[in-house]
């Protein structure tokens, strides 16, 4: 498993403008074709370039360990789940509203993590408490920064509430937020419940993206 060279893009591919294709669609296609992480994901069999975000976070924070129980919330299409399996997690349970194609070594569940039945299904599949809860979820963006920030913080709060129910003491929580970081109340909860809380922007996050990740480790347990 190798990372793309930093800044290495090679030759630039440009598309001829196709009839009926919008300018925005044209730009998106060209960006995908010229993105080294997209090419690396295809070459290494990952379902999305987002896999490299988790790889880079893991290289920095040493999140994934052999034999762990890992939950991947909002997992589709499954790039983060693939990384967790490849890095030796003992049990990996992926949950999403969307159906996913099978990933060897992982249990894929379809459902809403706010549903108590989904929570019970995750715990049953883990056969014990989780060591790490991952969330790369993000709402559809509106283009209005303040609104988008509030919407993703709401998702993070829900993911954290789920994590606090299923994590073992010493466990970790990783979730996507937007620039502006984690709101005060949420950050205070994280700092109270975890030994260490940090923000990071992995190199695989596009430079023009507002995304950051909150990385909380050393879950203290209890209420």
Plain-language structure description:
- With 223 residues, the chain is α/β, with parallel strands linked by helices.
- The chain has one domain: Rossmann fold (3-Layer(aba) Sandwich).
- Helices cover 37% and strands 22% of the residues.
- The chain contains seven helices and seven strands.
- It has helices at 23-33, 36-44, 51-61, 79-86, 116-126, 145-166, 184-193, and strands spanning 69-73, 91-96, 106-110, 130-135, 167-178, 194-200, 211-219.
- Strands 3-2-1-4-5-7-6 form a seven-stranded mixed sheet, sandwiched between helices.
- Strand 1, helix 4 and strand 2 form a beta-alpha-beta unit.
- Helix 3 (51-61) packs across helix 4.
- The radius of gyration is 18 Å and the shape is globular.
- Belongs to the class I-like SAM-binding methyltransferase superfamily. RNA methyltransferase RlmE family.
- S-adenosyl-L-methionine binds at residues 78, 80, 96, 112, 136.
- Its EC number is 2.1.1.166.
User: Could you tell me the number of beta strands?
Assistant: 7
CATH class equals Alpha Beta
- Helix and strand sequence: HHHEHEEHEHEHEE
> Helical region count?
7
Indicate the CATH topology.
Rossmann fold
Query: Beta-strand level of the residues, as a percent range?
Result: 15-25%
Sequence of strands across the biggest β-sheet: 3-2-1-4-5-7-6
Shape call: globular
What Rg do the Cα atoms give?
Answer: 18 Å
Oligomer: single chain
Structural class: alpha/beta
Q: Unreliable segments (pLDDT under 50, ≥5 consecutive)? A: 5-11
| Main β sheet profile | 7 strands, mixed
- Tell me the name of the CATH homologous superfamily: Vaccinia Virus protein VP39
* Total of domains: 1
Organism: Siccirubricoccus soli
Binding site for S-adenosyl-L-methionine: 78, 80, 96, 112, 136
Catalytic activity: uridine(2552) in 23S rRNA + S-adenosyl-L-methionine = 2'-O-methyluridine(2552) in 23S rRNA + S-adenosyl-L-homocysteine + H(+)
Active site: 176 (proton acceptor)
């Amino acid at each position: 498993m190798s990372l793309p060279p930093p800044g290495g893009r090679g030759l630039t591919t440009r598309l001829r403008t196709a009839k009926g294709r919008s300018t925005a669609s044209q730009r998106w296609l060209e960006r995908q074709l010229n993105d080294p992480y997209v090419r690396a994901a295809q070459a290494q069999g990952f379902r999305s370039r987002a896999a490299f975000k988790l790889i880079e976070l893991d290289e920095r924070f040493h999140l994934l360990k052999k034999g762990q129980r890992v939950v991947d919330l909002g997992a589709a299409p499954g790039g983060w789940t693939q990384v967790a399996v490849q890095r030796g997690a003992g049990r990996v349970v992926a949950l999403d509203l969307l159906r996913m194609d099978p990933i060897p070594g992982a249990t894929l569940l379809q459902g809403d993590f706010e549903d108590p039945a989904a929570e019970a299904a995750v715990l049953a599949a883990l056969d014990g408490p989780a060591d790490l809860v991952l969330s790369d979820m993000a709402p559809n963006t509106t283009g209005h920064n303040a609104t988008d920030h509030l919407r993703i913080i709401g998702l993070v709060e829900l993911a954290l509430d789920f994590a606090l129910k299923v994590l073992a003491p010493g466990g970790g929580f990783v979730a996507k937020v937007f620039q502006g970081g984690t709101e005060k109340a949420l950050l205070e909860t994280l700092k109270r419940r975890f030994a260490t809380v940090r923000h990071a922007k992995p190199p695989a996050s596009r430079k023009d993206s507002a995304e950051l990740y909150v990385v909380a480790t050393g879950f203290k347990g209890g209420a």
